[in-house]
């Protein structure tokens, strides 16, 4: 391991604004949580701002630098070596120890408890970080339990993206969100091939390295213990492609707790001329769990109401896959759309153009809609709000409804939202839909259109708000009543 001079480490610090997670790190350094045996882990995939966050923290606590030590681990290091080094730093009066690249230590997963039990309880504030975030999840499961507080940098909401980069454009966020870039030149390299390379470094090798360094993996009977890196790369790429959905807006519903659905997904992953192994339902469940733990994959709740023989019934909730980094999903869907457009080569040029425009519009509308729902779901407190995608079926036919429903448990009321980039179309059967929803979610407080590029025409006099303004307000207030008041004052409608 090597000791890094904080002044040297922060020489190239950018003038980027601070993220919300910064306050958590600073409070930990200045607080006393360590005495309860708690350490802090800065997790996140590659190129999501972990190093920038640490640099900003060191610059901010410069008055405490004399009490800090910054260690960077090497592949040859062991936890016993780290333990001795921390003891040496303690003897020098160091009370804050930053340990970068902790996941390079081969026995970190199985011996990580020493950081909490021996040093944190003695008053040493331990902040760890490393690129293989699944290793931190394994360490939490096997050794650290509730003694590690994790800050994951992978998810960057639109509101946070807006503060970090000079853009208020939701379309820009869809294309580049979730990946940090230093300048416009680096930003311009983000594309399908670049994303595949990123996926290999950030996800495939994250899993591969974590499995390699998990001494108990054989005993725990992981379905991936005998999978080589080449096959793991193919599996993660295929999974990301499937999780992204299709260009026509169809998204796979996550129901892998049911055996038949898990088997169907496994068959889809096993298909292809380069498949070298049989994918099992157990592997699907394990992969989903890991992708969720590293912050790459999440889910959006869908509430479905079905009218059968004149009677409306609420079906059990289902969940759509959601890739947390918009840039990754956009790249996969754009590639799929390009392949789909090639099928139209037999049509005349004008018809080809119309088909391509329709496909791209549907693709972007679906990405924007799902991204807005996930952002709102992440910003509003779970104990008060349910944020979901509503769906209404009449005799097996999907009714043109709304894209997002926000239910307020405290007030027993809800709000409907239609989310559009350009289209001026809006829901039909609004009276029937509202009547069904009110029987389950109380009073309908408002029906709103969220638009990206221009105010829609003919939305029956209902409230219309810019998506960017809306997401920034939700992130700021975390209270829908305050959000709507602020938007009306702003004059966004």
From TrEMBL:
Output the Pfam families linked to this UniProt entry: AAA_14
Residue ranges the record marks as coiled coil: none
Task: Specify the domain of life of the species encoding this protein.
Answer: Bacteria
InterPro entries referenced in this protein's UniProt entry, alphabetically: AAA+_ATPase (IPR003593), AAA_14 (IPR041682), P-loop_NTPase (IPR027417)
Stretches assigned to the AAA+ ATPase domain: 36-149
Tell me the protein's name. AAA family ATPase
Q: State the organism named in the record.
A: [Eubacterium] siraeum
């Amino acid at each position: 391991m090597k000791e890094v001079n904080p002044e040297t480490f922060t020489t190239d610090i950018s003038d980027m604004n601070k993220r919300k997670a910064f306050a958590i790190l600073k409070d930990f350094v200045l607080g006393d949580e360590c005495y309860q045996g708690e350490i802090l882990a800065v997790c996140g995939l590659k190129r999501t701002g972990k190093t920038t966050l640490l640099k900003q923290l060191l610059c901010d606590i410069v008055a405490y630098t004399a009490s800090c030590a910054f260690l960077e681990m090497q592949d040859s290091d062991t936890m016993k070596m780290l333990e001795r080094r921390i003891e040496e730093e303690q003897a020098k009066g160091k009370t804050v120890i930053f340990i970068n690249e902790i996941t390079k230590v081969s026995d970190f997963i199985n011996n990580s408890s020493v950081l909490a039990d021996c040093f944190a309880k003695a008053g040493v504030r331990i902040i760890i970080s490393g690129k293989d975030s699944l290793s931190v999840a394994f360490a939490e499961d096997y050794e650290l339990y509730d003694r590690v507080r994790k800050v994951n940098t992978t998810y960057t909401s639109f509101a946070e993206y807006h503060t970090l980069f000079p853009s208020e454009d939701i379309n820009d966020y869809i294309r580049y969100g979730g990946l940090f870039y230093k300048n416009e030149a680096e930003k311009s390299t983000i594309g399908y091939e670049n994303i595949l390379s990123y996926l290999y470094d950030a996800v495939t090798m994250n899993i591969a390295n974590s499995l390699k360094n998990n001494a108990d993996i054989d005993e725990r009977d992981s379905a991936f213990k005998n999978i080589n890196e080449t096959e793991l790369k193919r599996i993660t790429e295929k999974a990301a492609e499937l999780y992204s959905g299709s260009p026509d807006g169809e998204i796979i519903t996550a129901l892998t707790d049911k055996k038949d659905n898990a088997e169907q997904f496994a068959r889809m992953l096993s298909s292809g001329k380069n498949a070298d192994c049989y994918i099992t339902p157990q592997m699907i469940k394990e992969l989903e769990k890991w992708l969720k733990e590293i912050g790459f994959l999440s889910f959006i709740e869908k509430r479905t109401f079905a009218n059968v023989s004149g009677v409306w019934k609420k079906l059990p909730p289902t969940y759509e896959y959601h890739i947390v980094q918009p840039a990754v999903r956009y790249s996969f869907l754009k590639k799929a759309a390009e392949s789909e457009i090639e099928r139209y080569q037999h049509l005349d040029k004008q018809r080809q153009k119309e088909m391509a425009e329709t496909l791209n519009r549907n693709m972007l509308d679906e990405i924007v809609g799902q991204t807005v729902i996930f952002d709102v779901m992440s910003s509003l407190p779970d104990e008060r709000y349910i944020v979901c995608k509503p769906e209404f079926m009449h005799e097996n036919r999907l009714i043109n409804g709304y894209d997002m429903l926000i239910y307020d448990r405290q007030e027993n009321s809800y709000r409907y939202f239609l989310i559009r980039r350009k289209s001026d179309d809006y829901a039909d059967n609004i009276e029937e839909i509202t009547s069904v929803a009110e029987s389950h979610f109380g009073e309908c407080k408002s029906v709103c259109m969220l638009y990206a590029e221009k105010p829609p025409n003919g939305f029956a006099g209902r409230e219309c708000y810019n998506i960017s303004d809306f997401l920034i307000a939700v992130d700021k207030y975390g209270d829908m009543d305050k959000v709507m008041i602020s938007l009306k004052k702003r004059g966004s409608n």
